[in-house]
Design brief:
Length: 454
């Protein structure tokens, strides 16, 4: 009975009503992604309410760097997701097993590498970002502790990618729910009871990350299907490892370059007062929340397109792309409008200072109307990745979004030096890059279909 239950957890995404399938596939992913955001959001909320504005600013100053390093792991795991979905859809058991076992090692090594880099260079990077003198000590301490959890994040994201690729989105949600509850409880205990402020919330996050990684690892070793792990098969299979890296490195690099471009934005924010930095830190929590809700749909898009590409179901590839674009845009627009309506209440979760709330609303007012437009760019990238194409989408993002943002900060923002002139770069960069990514996906899918039919 247990074996049958485990087998039923995976789904064949090449059959059935797409709109309903994508929706119910995405919901557990959305909840999982929201819980991951709550890890960092809980840190910010607890220090903002119980440790004061300096601690809030210290933790908030690390948001871009945390996004940079976790984005690298997420990018690598997206390659795992696509390749796993392709082999699962094609019923290629040997290739599926080799992919999963190679990916387990690669993602763990990536986490260890980021742990080393992050702990050694945390303060240097914060200095380059012109982090406020009164915030940098706390920010560096938070980062050095937080980076201890990078190997766990690598393992969790690997497992999440594998389970999502085979249609099982509920187990990752269950494991992350347990870890999330532990994270919040430890946040309150370390900060209120132990008085550890910045160090306490960082330690709580690390412990929670290892709990979710342990649960994911146990589940994969207990799984008896082709995507389960076995100690005897754990090694780097050359051809699979090369393919994973060929898909994952451009995606990871894309996440990294994207985050680096956002570092220039953080430098612009840091040029304002400490109150504006703190307000931006509080408001930026909405970014992770909304982006990760939309990112769940992008994962669904890659998984559906990957499985259907492996099975040769071209009609479902096009419909999956269109439906996921609509879902992601609708989610971004709806959540953005809710932020406009309830922005002060949202910001009050992180600060009690009226001036900080006012500064945070300067960001939310512009971003609330902008989030939805990122769907055209990001979902097209996910769709192209599902077809095994990640290099060109990466180049388009670098040129149309990353380089554009740096140029904007150095020209438009440098000229006006206002909050609106800084935050408007988001919607402009998303629109330009989105148009290019849509065109690339349409042309690539048509060419691959013609090659398949020839």
């Amino acid at each position: 009975m247990k074996t049958a239950a485990r087998r039923s957890a995976s789904q064949d995404l090449t059959q059935g009503p797409l709109a309903k399938q994508i929706f119910f596939f995405s919901v557990p992913l959305i909840l999982s992604n929201v819980l991951q955001v709550l890890f960092n959001m809980a840190d910010v909320a607890v220090v903002g309410q119980f440790a004061g504005p300096l601690a809030l600013g210290s933790v908030g100053s690390t948001t871009i760097l945390v996004s940079l390093f976790t984005g690298l792991l997420i990018g690598l795991s997206s390659g795992v997701n696509v390749l796993t979905a392709l082999h699962f859809g094609a019923r290629s058991k040997k290739e599926l097993s080799e992919t999963v076992h190679s990916a387990a090692i690669l993602c763990t090594l990536a986490g260890l590498l980021l742990l080393l880099v992050g702990t050694v260079f945390a303060r240097d990077i914060l200095s380059l970002l012109r982090t406020k003198e009164e915030l940098i000590d706390g920010a560096a301490l938070y980062l050095r502790i937080y980076f201890l959890g990078m190997p766990a994040l690598g393992i969790y994201n690997f497992g999440n990618a594998v389970f999502s690729a085979v249609g099982d989105t509920r187990r990752p949600l269950c494991y992350l729910s347990i870890a999330g509850a532990v994270n919040i409880a430890l946040n309150l205990f370390f900060v209120i009871v132990c008085g550890m402020d910045v160090a306490g919330v960082a330690a709580a996050s690390v412990i929670s990350q290892y709990i979710s990684a342990a649960l994911m690892t146990i589940a994969l070793f207990r799984c008896r299907e082709g995507h389960g792990l076995r100690l005897s098969a754990l090694r780097l299979y050359k051809s699979r490892s090369q393919t994973i890296l060929a898909l994952g490195i451009p995606s990871a690099f894309q996440h990294g370059i994207f985050a680096l471009a956002n570092l220039f934005i953080q430098m612009g924010v840091n040029s304002f007062s400490a109150t504006m930095v703190e307000g931006n830190s509080a408001a930026a929590n909405a970014d992770g929340l909304i982006y990760d809700v939309m990112a769940a749909v992008y994962t669904a898009c890659s998984s559906f397109i990957g499985q259907n590409f492996g099975a040769g179901r071209w009609d479902r590839i096009r419909r999956s792309y269109l439906l996921c674009t609509v879902y992601a845009f609708g989610a971004g627009l709806t959540l953005g409008l809710l932020l406009l309506a309830f922005g002060p209440q949202f910001l009050s979760l992180f600060t009690r200072e009226p001036e900080v709330v006012e500064a945070g609303m300067a960001r939310l007012t512009i971003m609330g109307l902008s989030y939805g437009f990122s769907a055209f760019m990001d979902n097209s990238i996910a769709a192209s990745r599902g077809l095994g194409k990640s290099l060109v989408p990466m180049v388009l993002v670098i040129l149309g979004s990353c380089v554009f943002r740096v140029v904007w900060v150095c020209t438009v923002f440098a000229h006006f030096r206002t909050v609106p002139s800084l935050y408007l770069l988001y919607i402009f960069s998303w629109t330009i890059t989105g148009a290019a990514e849509v065109l690339y996906f349409v042309r690539t899918s048509r060419r691959l279909r013609q090659e398949h039919l020839a």
